[in-house]
Amino acid sequence: MNETSLSFWQAAWRRLKKNKAAMVGLVLIVLAIFIALFGYFIAPDPSPFANRIILEIGGEKPGFTQTFLLVKKVDASNTSVLQQAVSGKQDQYDYIPVTQASVTGDSVVAQRFIDEGLTERISYHKKALADAPIITRQFWLGTDSYGRDILSRLIIGTRISLSVGLITVFISLTVGIILGAAAGYFRGRTDDIIMWLINVIWSIPTLLLVFAITLLLGKGFWQVFIAVGLTMWVNVARLVRGQVLSTRELQYVEAAKALGFSHARIIGRHILPNILGPILVIAASNFASAIVIEAGLSFLGVGVQPPQPSWGLMIKENYNFIITQNPMLALAPGFAIMILVLAFNLLGNGLRDALNVKGKI
Asked: Of 14, 69, 135, 324, which one has the greatest count of Cβ atoms within 10 A?
């Protein structure tokens, strides 16, 4: 049995590798996971949530360059490498935009940038400044209306999108597999009750159901996971039910029953491993759907809350710039959503072909 199973998965992997579109999707997903894990080491702005606000340079276009004077913060605290990996690094300096600066004795004199054509003269002692007090930064994707680096928030936002997808898929698979397997295996009244529940949930529009759950649980990071996850299990349950209905009549299941194995063992050890292929396919599809739903909720204001850099929230904050002078502020997170969702859809299609899944039930 183990050799047969191993050969099946090896053959599926070989078929998947031949699917160029699926491999492109897999590479994009792996790249997104790497960015999510090490985002605070990659992002130009490693502050928590990439939330370094510099109002003077708000709404600048991609490629914008600005010189800053770094002034030490009085209440700055050191951040360990582990803390930075998890939640970012606290800024040690205030970033003051300047148009020009010069060293005069023990002081640095600069012209602070306030607005277009408006500056003021400032002076700081060297002890109040960083060792290299004057730096120049380029904002590759521009800045939002609060002067935050769009590229940094885009990078950190990858973690939120993948987290929502991962936890949502875990919740939907857990609920869907348990209810679907119970309905398909026991049939009868159990099947009728579960199918009634599935049909009721199925009849409610997804966003409307998410709104109801969100209003019940409140707005926030973890509430989004639960709300989206509890609305996506019906697809999994219907699929698992159909697969279990067709599998429970096979000889190896009848043999397990004759040997006196418990229902839980038959379902968990003998049926579910043999229907894993279709489950993986729908998991990839649900992952993509969860990312889109989370972005929609954040855009509507009931998802992830500021200052967390959700891609949907970034579109909401900057969509006015589409019809003005800087559309990239809203288009960049939109492209990120599109690419990541496309990657999961390509991988899901590749898994379907590699595992020879006949279709949903």
From this structure: 69
